[in-house]
Specification:
With 160 residues, the protein is of the alpha/beta class. It has six helices and five strands. The strands form two sheets. Strands 1-2-3 form a three-stranded parallel sheet. A two-stranded antiparallel sheet has the order 4-5. Helix 6 links the parallel strand 2 and strand 3. The longest helix has 15 residues. It is globular. The N and C termini lie far apart (40 Å).
């Protein structure tokens, strides 16, 4: 088997899990974890793609706003979008989303999925979720039932 260094995986694949943390620090320092070389323009682009840019622009300290311990200054939806923006900053070609809408209310969940295609800008996304996906949210869908993977891509009601 061919060996691959962990750093190589991290350059190619980024993970946004349901418990992706926000770290003690500012919004800027949380975003720079995704790409330490990102300039402010790239940070704003990622925030806009994650539909958080207008919110952050409205904060008195903008990018330098203190996120609070574990993101306590942000709503659950805002924290999830900040983590998405951080993932979008990574140069990886593949984004893995594991239950990205866990803890969000129905409206926030629907908005997250509605914005996802625009946010990822043509990168490959692997999405694992129990959430009901809006029509057209994914190109291919597989459902795991009783330990077996079923291709549901051709069915109209993917996760009914």
């Amino acid at each position: 088997a061919r060996e691959c260094a962990q750093a190589d995986w991290h350059r190619r694949i980024v993970l946004l899990s349901q418990d992706s943390p926000l770290f003690l620090g500012t919004l800027r320092t949380n975003l720079l974890i995704g790409n330490p070389d990102a300039d402010d323009g790239a940070l704003w682009q990622a925030l806009d793609a994650a539909r958080l840019g207008d919110f952050v622009r409205g904060l008195p300290d903008g990018l330098d706003t203190w996120a609070g311990e574990t993101g306590s200054q942000l709503s659950a939806g805002q924290a999830r979008r900040l983590c998405l923006a951080r993932a979008l900053l990574a140069p990886a070609a593949v984004i893995v989303l594991d239950e990205p809408t866990a803890g969000l209310d129905g409206a926030a969940e629907a908005a997250f999925f509605a914005d996802l295609e625009h946010a990822v800008r043509g990168r490959t996304v692997v999405l694992a979720t129990h959430a009901a996906l809006p029509e057209g949210a994914v190109h291919r869908c597989h459902v795991l039932r009783n330990g077996r993977l079923h291709d549901m891509s051709s069915h109209a009601a993917i996760l009914a």
